Amino acid sequence: MSGTAGQVIRCKAAVAWEAGKPLLMEEVEVAPPQAMEVRVKILFTALCHTDVYFWEAKGQTPLFPRIFGHEAGGIVESVGTGVTDLKPGDHVLPVFTGECKECRHCKSEESNMCDLLRINTDRGVMLNDGKSRFTIKGQSIYHFVGTSTFSEYTVVHVGCLAKINPAAPLDKVCILSCGISTGLGATLNVAKPKKGSTVAIFGLGAVGLAVSLFPNTRLVSDFEIQNVDADAKPVRLVSVSQAAEGARLSGASRIIGVDLNSNKFNEAKKFGVTEFVNPKDHKKPVQEVIAEMTNGGVDRSVECTGSINAMISAFECVHDGWGVAVLVGVPNKDDSFKTHPVNFLNERTLKGTFFGNYKPRSDLPAVVEKYMNKELELEKFITHEVPFSEINKAFDYMLNGESLRCIIRMGA
């Protein structure tokens, strides 16, 4: 065990005290892990749009003060009682959703929706005792989705940690713990385009571009949320990039990117996107435009925006008889999906996915090995890097639409 095992650790954390206000660098006390918990030293973390969404607290119940962050890589410092498959020194990726390996979902080959550890954005405490492991001068600081990686040390349930190859560079593979894997999995595990097929990707962000990576491979989501209103800032290049990357590696012959921001199109070419459609450039619904371009519709579509209109268009643009649409983006809670039932009777299929249907502990290590074997490129998703002391710059980059992923170096 490490020399700090069982002791309170004092370290730096970027704390959000109020909605939308810059994070403040504070000294926090991080309590030892309790039963089935692990304390992790975070070495690298990244900013995901989900962090920004809940930091802004628009449309949710505000929960502050809070330590955000959920895309990261680190090393196990100590473990609580009952933890048997991790030990100090192991390299891990914290994940916002978990895998207890005991519930019906975890035992099913068809689901990754763990009953115990499924994401809960409203819970700011640990499951074990309903308390936070973070304090500042006696004041509790809320956790975020069970990870809180904007701290040099954090405490995570063992079921939300994927043990990975220690040779994998954490400053690269850390981005696999959320958006990149969501887009890849949406393509590889759910849409499953065949070689030579046509694929439409709605929303040219990181998740979407990852979809284009692997259109013909089976590996053993991202709960990111994107505003795609006409005046919205382009904050979501990572998801779509993953979707596009998956489609490219699958051997898709045409990958059609759909986005309201035409400035994203040149960047998307790097991920295999072959054609582009901006709905604002057409007087008819974009699903009709795509149907005309593809002789009746695409074989597969992946929606990565969270816009209910984009979801409907993604479904209605697939070909009858065999077309499959996959929803990745998270809509507003009051949205309703409306389409004519005949679209289903004409044998179009609509699917949803959560974290790309990956089981975090079982499947993420294999995704990391894809990178290690040079089958998966991650460097092109990383557009910026900042020291931990300048974490607010990462927020600026994302809010200004300048970054796909910004790596934050802890201890700097």
Automatic annotation (TrEMBL):
Cofactor section: Zn(2+)
Annotated Gene Ontology cellular component terms: cytosol
Enzyme Commission identifier(s): 1.1.1.1
Domain Alcohol dehydrogenase-like C-terminal stretches: 243-369
UniProt keyword annotation of Metal-binding present: yes
Subcellular location: Cytoplasm
Single Gene Ontology BP annotation: formaldehyde catabolic process
Alphabetized Pfam families for the sequence: ADH_N, ADH_zinc_N
Gene3D superfamilies named in the record: Medium-chain alcohol dehydrogenases, catalytic domain, NAD(P)-binding Rossmann-like Domain
Family the UniProt entry places it in: Belongs to the zinc-containing alcohol dehydrogenase family.
Protein name from the UniProt record: Alcohol dehydrogenase 1
